[in-house]
Here is the input.
Amino acid sequence: MPFDSNPIRLQLTNAIPTSASTPVSATYDSSSEILFIPSVTLSGTSNRVELKRNTALSGYQFELQSLKELISFNIVDTGQSDCYNSSGNLISCIDSGQDAAYSGNQPSYTNNSDGTITDNVTGLVWQSTPDINGDGSIDSTDKLSQSNALSYCSSLSQGNQTDWRLPTIKQMYSLINFDGEDVSDISGEETSNLVPFIDTNYFTFAYGDTSVGERIIDVQYATSTLYISPAVITTMFGVNLADGRIKGYGTTINNSEKTFFVQCVRGFEDYGINYFIDNGDQTVSDAASDLMWEQNDSQTSMNWDNAIKYCENISTAGYSDWRLPNAKELQSIVDYTRSPDSSNSAAIDPLFNATSITNEAGQTDWGYYWTNTTHLKSTGPGNHAVYISFGRAMGYNNGQWQDVHGAGAQRSNIKLSTEQLDPSYTIVTDANGNEAIIHGPQGDVLRVNNFVRCVR
Here is the structure.
């Protein structure tokens, strides 16, 4: 497959270009007749190229649709520093396969002394506080609807800059710190001893405004990412820095607009955009994040301990350094433009193979995937772990099974077995006649056994 940049032209031989030999690798979508080449060097710069088949010409000849510089992004480490066994007890991280056993891009910030903070890992620049009315107190009066948050950020002038925007879900999630503790089981109003999921050495933070009837857990941050699903009401993916989760939130509640905290960002608009390459050996590389992934998932679900062992022991494509991904790594490959209801697929690029399931409502769906990140609670041991839902994030509410948080949600589950359930969990019979575990006000469906996709 020769590629010449002046003028740009592509000549293919033989059949449909489902794969390509060096020097470039390509993916062909037969339905759209788009040829995607994730990395081509032109004039010393790496670019991603999309070409459209010209059906007026014979054979497979393509015309340039887009040419964009390939820009890499760094995934910030989760900040988790300890390891916990499945019973929730502290253990040594050596050979544990857990999050804290691996050292990634450690969080690093610079206070610019103008109300902004630079993330030295991602290059993103953030407002230092969600106190958007500037009264020195972070409370319900600082919250905005998602539409007003978009307008607020686009019109913001701060730090002598005007190119602010509401972050995407991947950009907002880059700030999460998993040394935080989930407060969802806290019943009182005292917050002085609680640890949020953000670095408070640089960012100011407050729990929910209980003086106006909010719960301390009501710390949802707005993003520009909506859930693409015709089966649910308009839903925004938000990050909750009090409970350490991504959930889909309806943009309206009780016929009024729901409001959220807002933290605007500027710089590096392409942060979080993947550039996947099919390596032809059952692996997929993300040229943007410099991570390599298994193209296939585990195909069978398993508990958390076995998920860690599964990745530590495989040798796909001859590599022996596979591991279970941490929360931020796995979330980085979610495709928020895809969902079971909008694309009849998992929320992941079609280069990956995802095992389908029948969910609790009897629907064809895709599963939850484990990470090696422990999800700490303020009131208990570290016996929960983070998972990402690449299919519907199911719940049982008011006698109905429904997608309560969206494909791409991040929640957590017990690591080992139902023996760890406390009275706040309920077991009900699902539409398939099987037992299902539900928890929380929206009846989040928790699955003890989840799928695995390893990374290196």
Notes: The longest helix spans residues 304-313. The radius of gyration is 23 Å. The chain is about 5% helix and 30% strand.
